[in-house]
TrEMBL record:
Keywords: Coiled coil, Signal. GO terms for molecular function: S-adenosylmethionine-dependent methyltransferase activity. The keyword Secreted does not apply. The lineage of its organism: Eukaryota, Fungi, Dikarya, Ascomycota, Pezizomycotina. InterPro entries: CARME, SAM-dependent_MTases_sf. Residues 1-18 form the signal peptide. Residues 126-185 form a coiled coil. Pfam families: CARME. This is N2227-like protein-domain-containing protein.
């Protein structure tokens, strides 16, 4: 049977992926990819298409008791009648996120048309040069085409999420209709950022960013495991895990039971899309088509990235929600907490410290790696020396760590500074790097 792209999209938008378990409702590709002609039954299917991506096989450990329990718990929290229905309700946040991914193309095209419109201000003679030399209009048309290709990934993410969270297409459609009637716009930036996170975490191109941080963190954890007397796997929690690659690398070390935690639904639906992949690089996308700045060449801007470059470790568990509240019943449960580019996201830094202290066993370790880039409205903003003083006052002891975590930041104290990028695009003519602060402390 042959099926064309229009049919495919109808299937995706129609009932094929409409989840049936309503009761328990508890940041791109290349034009040569043959998405328009897909052959089912009698031939190969392009892995790029939403049906194929949704159908990535579910593998053993995702069905482990730990995974099953957490999913049941998640679906209960997601139920409409659970808690208060409002902007922080997980189901509403999920629906808003899926609204964002669904409207990816529309929101991007509005922006593209704005650029097209701005181009009309260029003089006739100037345009002639631009068209002859760089074919500028065609560049904008190329961007449009790649936006359509990115849309396929967004649709796959939505299909996968509907199934995973037990939400029907009808419920999402109604949510979108309601949002549009209220003239609420889908979030373009968060979708774009989530797609770019695939690069940082799961593409070959992200290796530089990962290599700034992971060797220090992984060797420190191996060292802790080496001296640990605990015979069973050490329980490691990584709050603010983004798309989770670090946790998967920790799980690959052996001897660790890894739990990720992430608040953002944009991150979570992207993670759910990738977590069961049993193939390497099954999908491709064009993460940089939505910005014209900092490109050495237009080819760089339009380039294709593939992901995931390794298969995820199926033992890793993601617990969705706010770090400060999601683990309330797990006091003293964890051997190690790893905060990677996380603590400066706090509204109240002291609450993160309290939660870390609560969740660690006595003798447990907290490993931090990240900058002190505070957000727009934190209740308290501390410099490194103040953090050291507060953390010591709380009863943590700073430990020595190895040279692969950088130089000592200041004499007489143990935290180290390690240059670490957080920019997604290694080819950009700009660099976004931090003197990440690294420390290990023990809960006394
Ligand atoms: C700067 S990002 C770093 C992500 C990832 N660790 C990395 O390095 O790529 C911080 C992450 O923390 C998440 N986050 C912020 N506040 C959180 C909270 N209270 N609980 C859990 N995650 C949170 C954000 O959604 C974001 O994904």
């Amino acid at each position: 049977m042959r099926i064309n792209l229009l049919h495919l999209l109808l299937l995706v938008n129609g009932n094929v992926f409409a989840a049936t378990n309503n009761d328990n409702a508890a940041s791109i590709v290349h034009r040569e990819d043959p998405v328009e002609t897909l052959t089912f039954d009698d031939g190969p299917v392009n892995i790029q298409d939403p049906i194929q991506m949704r159908a990535m096989p579910i593998i053993a450990d995702v069905n482990s008791p730990r995974h099953r329990q957490e999913r049941a718990h998640l679906l209960r929290r997601m139920a409409r009648n659970h808690g208060t229905w409002g902007s922080t309700h997980p189901r509403l946040r999920l629906l808003d996120t899926l609204f964002g991914f669904t409207k990816y193309k529309e929101r991007q095209i509005i922006e593209l048309n704005r650029w097209r419109n701005l181009y009309t201000n260029v003089g006739k003679k100037q345009k002639k040069v631009l068209e002859r030399v760089v074919n500028y209009k065609k560049k904008l048309d190329d961007v449009e085409e790649l936006i359509y290709e990115n849309l396929m990934i967004c649709k796959s993410i939505v299909s996968n999420a509907l199934q995973f969270y037990g939400v029907t297409q009808q419920e999402l459609d109604e949510h979108i209709k309601d949002a549009e009637e209220k003239e609420r716009q889908a979030d373009r930036i968060s979708v774009s950022q989530a797609l770019k996170h695939f690069v940082r975490d799961w593409a070959d191109e992200g290796a530089k960013e990962r290599n700034d941080a992971f060797p220090c963190i992984l060797s420190t954890l191996s060292g802790l495991k080496g001296v640990s007397k605990e015979p069973s796997p050490l329980k490691v929690l990584l709050p603010g895990s983004g798309l989770g690659r670090l946790g998967h690398e920790v799980a690959n070390l052996d001897g660790f039971e890894v739990t990720l935690n992430e608040w953002s639904m944009y991150m979570n639906v992207a993670y759910r899309f990738i977590e069961n992949s049993t193939l390497t690089n099954p999908f491709s996308f064009h993460p940089f088509v939505d910005g014209f700045s900092h490109h050495a060449t237009t080819t760089d801007m339009l380039r294709k990235v593939t992901a995931p470059n390794v298969t995820p470790n199926s033992k890793v568990l993601l617990v969705e929600g706010d770090f400060n509240t999601a683990f309330k019943d797990q006091a003293g449960h964890y051997d190690i907490i790893v905060t990677h580019f996380f603590i400066d996201t706090a509204r109240n830094l002291m609450s993160y410290f309290d939660t870390i202290q609560l969740l660690l066993k006595t003798g447990g370790k907290w490993l931090n790696f990240g900058p002190l880039l505070y957000g727009t409205a934190p209740f308290v903003q501390l410099s490194l020396d103040e953090i050291i003083a507060v953390v010591e006052e709380m009863g943590f002891a700073f430990e020595d760590i190895g040279d692969d975590c950088g130089e000592i930041t200041f004499d007489g104290k143990k935290p180290r500074s390690k240059e670490a990028e957080y920019g997604f695009n290694g080819k950009a003519l700009t660099k976004n790097a931090y003197a990440a602060q690294v420390w290990v402390v023990t809960k006394k």
